[in-house]
Amino acid sequence: xxxxxxxxxxxxxxxxxxxxxxxxxxxxxxxxxxxxxxxxxxxxxxxxxxxxxxxxxxxxxxxxxxxxxxxxxxxxxxxxxxxxxxxxxxxxxxxxxxxxxxxxxxxxxxxxxxxxxxxxxxxxxxxxxxxxxxxxxxxxxxxxxxxxxxxxxxxxxxxxxxxxxxxxxxxxxxxxxxxxxxxxxxxxxxxxxxxxxxxxxxxxxxxxxxxxxxxxxxxxxxxxxxxxxxxxxxxxxxxxxxxxxxxxxxxxxxxxxxxxxxxxxxxxxxxxxxxxxxxxxxxxxxxxxxxxxxxxxxxxxxxxxxxxxxxxxxxxxxxxxxxxxxxxxxxxxxxxxxxxxxxxxxxxxxxxxxxxxxxxxxxxxxxxxxxxxxxxxxxxxxxxxxxxxxxxxxxxxxxxxxxxxxxxxxxxxxxxxxx
Length: 419
Known about the structure:
The chain is α/β, with parallel strands linked by helices. It has 2 domains: about 1-210 and about 410-419, 3-Deoxy-D-manno-octulosonic-acid transferase, N-terminal domain (Rossmann fold, 3-Layer(aba) Sandwich); about 215-405, Glycogen Phosphorylase B (Rossmann fold). It contains 17 helices and 14 strands.
């Protein structure tokens, strides 16, 4: 089975690598470090006798893992921590964790590339965020007696049914795993139903609830809001994907007919789309400003503010009154993005109908009326009008969202204990 998988990987890897290395506007470059994807990994600086390896794929997983990585370092300051990502944007985020972390790119999942990486880095433990399971990586880790733990694991009903049809494939993935720390009991039950030993499965909750928003970030959000105007209504649409911007901009134009001072902050999910969204806004006849070119207060005539920087999402959300989460308006393609950040900043939340990747937090917010599902442009207009026009409703929904976050914390400590 693994031989067949490797043959298939050989066929598809050129396309994967082309997509990974393709030059795009505002995307960080790999430079000479592309060799790390083939196991040519630089030796660690001042490595200790105990090396732990966190794999976090890209930006979202790296952000979610950051509080745990910092807490782990506090508990075990003599351990060497290596963080691998696949993407260059993930690498950029990893450098922000702290100077106690050494970043390397994750090797492509061939036995020889992973074996070379392990030989150089010599990790004792591998911690994988969510369900990023690669057969050769897991097999090589098991052969080298490296303990493998899946952190913040989730298994949707759809993925469960898919694995059930191909049980042999799942067995190949799961046999080398030492423990799986699940977000919910439902996730744990699905893993057990697929044959994972009960002793290997624990429920810790979602690490993403243990979000830690620093006073500096809160202050930067407040300063941005001051530059906009404290009394000016502001809504943000975060992490938009191709096909969503037209819907959002159309809704915003209609909202401006009733509330001419309303400002939209729009933040595309991928940096290569910053220019595209700016051009699309101008084509719609909207007056824009961009974060990268705004050196002073935002013009009162500006209608759309483009968040075209990396790492400032919390600042942008903090400056807004309402947050709509992108990736949720384009059918089943993406499955939404995490509403925890706006909830932790006490913002009323809006999302499209496709949020299956973040079902738990979305449904929790829905139960306390802290979130509204908007199926189309008209529903977005209605929800934004209602919230902009009722400050008390804004405050109620924001407080309810924050309460959900605060009462759901604890996964970080449970995870640390099990590590």
